[in-house]
Amino acid sequence: MSQSFAVVTFGCRVNQADSLVIENELTSRGARLVPAEQADLVVVNTCSVTASADQGARQTIRRLVRLNPDVRVVVTGCYSTRRPEEVAALPNVIGVVSNTDKEKLTPLIGANGWLTTAQRFGDGDEACGATTVPGAGGRTSLTLRVQTGCEERCSYCIIPQTRGRGRSRPLKDVLARVEAAIAAGYKEIVLTGVHLGSYGRDLADGTCLAGLIAALARRSEDVLFRISSLEPMDCTEEIVDLVMQSPRLAPHFHLPLQHAANRMLAAMRRPYLYEDYHALVSRIRSAMPHASIGSDVIVGFPGECDEDFAIMERRLRELPLTHLHVFPYSDREGTEASALSNKVEGVAIRARGRAVRDIGAEMARRFRQSQAGTTTRALTLDEGWSAVTPNYLKVRLDRQIARNEWIDVKLSEDALSGVVMS
Ligand code: SF4
Q1: Alpha carbon of 178 to ligand 1 centroid (Å)
Q2: Is residue 126 part of a domain?
Q3: How far is the CA of 270 from the centre of ligand 1 (A)?
Q4: Does some domain include residue 255?
Q5: Is 18's C-beta closer than 6 angstroms to any atom of ligand 1?
Q6: CA 281/CA 258 separation, integer angstroms
Q7: Range of the domain at 49
Q8: Which residues of 338-348 are buried (b: 16+ CB within 10 A; e: fewer)?
Q9: Ligand 1 atom with least separation from CA of 270
């Protein structure tokens, strides 16, 4: 009888996309997907972007073993890539698979007998990967990883060390997976990567992100393509124009700024100035007044003085953004920044984090206000009592509609809920 398994995922959209592929490859061989506490085998797909991410993985593995002493654990992802010995020493860990070998994880599970399944590993493995269906992993949209690895050297970031050099899926393979996903019923597909903007550069055959997006914009099916996080230096005028002109592309950008003081951007080794960033988001805002434009910022980077932070606050208030993700600086051993002096006190980091989150909350409130009373399309989610709009507003519905349906919804005064019009 086929054994049971679970996949526990930490971290970014790239990890979520990888986990969905692992889930799908194991279920397509007859293995049973069950809650982690009941599984024979648990694959833990780790993150290592902060120290607490590592700790979270350790705590989860120990908890699973307490609840299910016979569980077998295979660990993959950035933490297992950065600290394989440390991970291998955790209880019940029978396999440690680095990011570089992650695409071989399922055959590895078969080859090592870590899981017995109805269909033997290797029998009829689809080159293109069978696809899941809307709702798999609790998600209505499909997150499709088209690239991994990164060639940049942001001084605070451990990811180039854990994900390696930039590697892109060939365009033909990406389009085949899009075809399979649409055939499986997906109506929203999110493009993701570790450094998505560098898509195709390693292929040296002219493939690039704008080319991929243009190909998707030409599709006739009623499917929405969403670009996940895009480094500002990669968000070209061509990409902005494609999004502006095509109903297939979500008017939604996530452009990590990280800091608004040029002195800090230089210390972070971010390859742009604040003025470049301001020009980019201002152009998007004037081209698409209803677009969602989110960003990431780090507070408490080593050497960040009161004046740097005051510049950040003042400039964030002038940027036409719609929401912020705020990250307290976290020392990552092995990064250039971790060797810097002038570390900022924890109490100051927390206070600055609160201040910037308040600015982010005001941005989100102002954006919802600007959408109040408008009628827009939306894709129904979960149990059908909520939906997400192309410009990334999640709204409660006044009546239940089946998951994964396009509807027209009239947004309320605070744009937190809506009346189903169709
Ligand atoms: S672009 Fe910078 S922050 Fe992003 S993964 Fe690469 S090194 Fe890290």
Answers
A1: 26
A2: no
A3: 9
A4: no
A5: no
A6: 14
A7: 4-120
A8: eeeeebbeeee
A9: 2
